[in-house]
Known about the structure:
This protein has a single domain (3-97), classed as EF-hand (Recoverin, domain 1, Orthogonal Bundle). Helix 1 crosses helix 4. Helices cover 50% and strands 5% of the residues. The mean pLDDT is 88. By secondary structure, it is mainly alpha-helical. It has helices spanning 3-19, 34-40, 47-57, 68-80, 89-97; strands at residues 28-30, 65-67. One of its GO terms (molecular function) is calcium ion binding.
Amino acid sequence: MNKKEEASNLEKKINDAFKLFDHTGSDAVDVREIGTIIRSLGCCPSESELQEILVQVEDQEMTGSVKLNRFLPVMAEILQENRLQGAEPELLLAALKTFDPEGKGTQLIQTPI
């Protein structure tokens, strides 16, 4: 796949995710939906990273909403640069294994009496 096809596929992926939350067909979504849209694209932003993105994409004329034409280029850049990626599964598994030193596949939780 060449770069042009990759960019087109990426734009379609972003567009499709955005459109799921565009209930009126106006190419705009509620600003509160942006975190969910970004996470649906495989990103794991912190709250501060999410706020930085919102500052870039929120519609200045219609506060509380984000238009696709502002969101698309910002999100495409984030995905192309592999920013906001979550931890690797192996790293998460290693972290969980620290709570299961005997390798039983369970964790004991002690509750106060």
